[in-house]
Amino acid sequence: MTQTNGKPGAQLIDRVVLILDLVANARDEGITLKDFCDLTELNKATCHRILSTLVGHNLLAKVDKGRRYRLGTKMLVYGAKAAKGPGLRSQCQPAMQRLAQLTGETVVLMARDQDDSVCIDRLDGECLVQTLTGAIGGYVPLGVGPGSLAMLSFLADDERDAIVARNLPRIGTYAGMTEKRVRELIDETSTQGFALDRGELLVGVAGVSVPIFAVESGPVASLGLTFLSARLTPELLDKYVNLLKEEVGRIAPNLNPLDRRLTAPGRA
Questions:
Q1: DSSP letter (8 states) at residue 231
Q2: Quick check: 82 pLDDT over 60?
Q3: C-alpha closest to that of 211 among 199, 202, 203, 219
Q4: Is residue 146 a contact partner of residue 207, using CB atoms and an 8 Å limit?
């Protein structure tokens, strides 16, 4: 377990955040006390004490007759309040709505979280299609999928190479994704100005994404469309890329470069 420093107060916060992250990334059925002990390397008494306190504050909830834990209702309140703030998501919602109306496709907004690409908003299209992240809050390692490639490909060379090196073990779990293939896709994306998946990762599903840059900053997010790969033609691709770039052109000037939520490698 990584700790920010050795002070007891900071260690406790680290443990609480780790537990919340584990629950947030778990499957719908939740996580057991034994799972927490195994994953955090904390003893049963410490885990139980932290979990009970979080349940008492409605940050976690007990399910399955008290045997498992899921995120509590207070987390939903926090999430709703954060979404209404002056951050990236609210800035992009008008553009996403226009894209959904003009294309009928699924619109996906991704942001960087350390070495991952996180879905922070999406609007489902007329035809429901599977996406790599699954839903808002889902994530993939940077380097997998057009949404993440649209950000990764425009980072500084040394930062990008370091991320690829760290992510390779996870990237390799996706069909056909090797270091060579990732670097080919990075080159294609940086040359074209957009990232494209013709259906390599999910059978029958294509996607195209463009980076969103804050003023005088690097890529802070990506905006993309997901659709059936059978519909992909050069004409449709040109249309979608132009629409995405037009909307991103409207968004970027309104992003505050001093907003650390946009420039730091964390969730916007």
A1: G
A2: no
A3: 219
A4: yes
d(CA 177, CA 131) in angstroms, rounded, equals 17
Q: Is 172 helix (H, G, I), strand (E, B) or coil?
A: coil
Torsion of CA 224, 256, 80, 18, to 10 degrees: 90
pLDDT tens-digit series, residues 35-64? 889 888 889 998 999 999 999 998 999 888
Per the structure, the count of domains in the chain is: 2
Pairwise CA distance, residues 119 & 104, whole Å: 19
Round the CA-based radius of gyration of the chain to a whole number and report it.
20
Token digits for 95? 């553009």
Query: What is the DSSP code (8-state) at residue 76?
Result: H
User: How big is the chain, counted in residues?
Assistant: 268
Indicate which CATH number applies to the domain containing 102: 3.30.450.40
Pull the structure tokens for residue 13.
């916060």
Provide the 3-class DSSP secondary structure of residue 189. helix
Structural domain that includes position 58: 8-77
